[in-house]
Amino acid sequence: MSQAPDDDDSDVINLFKRGSDDDFDSTEWIDALLTRAIQSPGPRMRSAVASPTTVDDAEKERRKALLVAILTRSLQRLEEWMSEFANKPDVNFTVGRDRYTPLMLAAMRGDMEVVRILVERLKANKHAKTYRGDKSAADLAEDEEIKRYLSA
């Protein structure tokens, strides 16, 4: 993976669905992909988004730091994120055209401990649905333990 993927939600999904902890030796394209994913939603979604449509640079960096912790399955990075942003721990933002939450991405990533922290400590919304309203984090998870936990 030496090239940056196209600007497409499937690239974000494929990145988070990786089953192994690949060596992300070239992180520039990951950074670019996550930056694109957290950009303001396009015009077709403006009416569906409850939060403001513009996100300042500090908020983009906060969101990206959480997504990197999820992507890398790093409990240390997640703990650091929680410490740094203890006054603003919102984890129910959405990314990409289909509006995936960090919990949805963590469920796809398959890390039960990260999923538990997002739900139990950071109050991630287990019932949030994608843009089309058809999939929750439990629906997107491939790991049966995560599916059961999120469906309970």
UniProtKB/TrEMBL annotation:
Keywords, comma-separated and alphabetical: ANK repeat
ANK repeats (start-end): 98-121
PROSITE patterns: ANK_REP_REGION, ANK_REPEAT
Name of protein: Uncharacterized protein
Keyword NADP on entry: no
SUPFAM superfamilies per record: Ankyrin repeat
Pfam families recorded: Ank
Entry keyword Kinase: no
InterPro entries assigned: Ankyrin_rpt, Ankyrin_rpt-contain_sf
